[in-house]
Design a protein that fits this description.
By secondary structure, the protein is an alpha+beta fold. The chain has ten helices and eleven strands.
């Protein structure tokens, strides 16, 4: 049961401290900071909202249970679902994406096309999109093209699909699980295929059809996401961040991140530090 005095937040209003805000074709994008161990009461939003924690842990209590949202994942809050939130001991920095009818029209969607349930998205592609969005927010002026493209992709995950897709091989989920467990170390494709009990060439071809990239590219993506998460969320030296994520060295990490996101690890780290300093003012 929700409390009778539940709070309803108006458009653009959040319980944390708003540090940056941009409006993109009906989409409101806000960078917000939340103090450590903060506890917020049950509330709803005027518009459907996506929340992406960049650093820190976000605990969400909904009607169906509690969710611990890790950094760079995405949670969807429909207007009909109340939630109460709390923050971990290191504080929380995140991005709110507020979806209006204007934005849905911009995406050639209607409100009835979008899911009405609370959902947590935490795939590899979702985390990379979140990292792209964080990099786009480095600019003081409106990061229109980069942020809007990522927001369209994230909105697309909310669309309720009525199509049935071809069944993927049963071993594909095990392949992804293996890669997510071993990406920080050298991964031999022949060993992966042996683990799955299939031919290496068949493994590579089927993986590419399912994920749209090679296994090697997928490993690089996992390393990039982990290194970006560490750069945003922790104060370790960047050389150590690169090593923990599986890069050969800091230079390799810097080149990969710069090519993928248009921002260096050092600049991404400075962006995080700037936001935290503003939150403490």
């Amino acid at each position: 049961m929700y409390p009778v005095n539940m709070t309803r937040l108006s458009a653009g209003e959040y319980l944390g401290r708003s540090l940056r805000r941009w409006c993109l074709s009906g989409l409101s994008l806000t960078v917000s900071a939340y103090p450590r161990r903060a506890i917020y009461p049950w509330h709803t939003h005027e518009h459907p909202t996506l929340f992406i924690p960049l650093a820190g842990i976000h605990y969400d209590q909904t009607r169906t249970g509690a969710v611990e949202q890790p950094p760079l994942s995405v949670v969807f809050h429909p207007t009909t679902s109340a939630h109460a939130t709390s923050v971990g001991q290191s504080g929380l920095m995140g991005i709110n994406l507020e979806i209006t009818d204007e934005w849905l029209e911009h995406c050639q969607l209607r409100s009835c096309d979008v899911t009405v349930d609370f959902r947590l998205f935490d795939s590899t592609w979702t985390r990379f999109s979140a990292l792209q969005l964080a990099a786009a927010c480095r600019r003081e002026n409106t990061p229109e093209t980069e942020a809007e493209n990522v927001a369209v992709e994230l909105t697309g995950q909310l669309v309720r699909s009525t199509q049935t897709t071809a069944r993927a091989p049963r071993w594909l989920a095990r392949a992804e699980e293996y890669l997510r467990a071993h990406y920080q170390e050298p991964v031999r494709l022949r060993k992966l295929a042996d683990e799955l009990g299939i031919h290496p060439v068949h493994c590579c071809r089927a993986f590419h059809r399912a994920f749209g990239c090679t296994i090697t590219a997928y490993i690089r993506l996992l390393r990039l996401i982990e290194a970006g998460r560490l750069a945003l969320g922790e104060d370790q030296p960047l050389a150590e961040v690169a090593a923990r994520a599986g890069f050969a060295d800091q230079a390799h990490f810097t080149r990969t991140l710069s090519r993928a996101l248009g921002i260096t690890p050092a600049r991404l780290r400075r962006l995080r530090q700037k936001w935290y300093s503003e939150a403490d003012e």
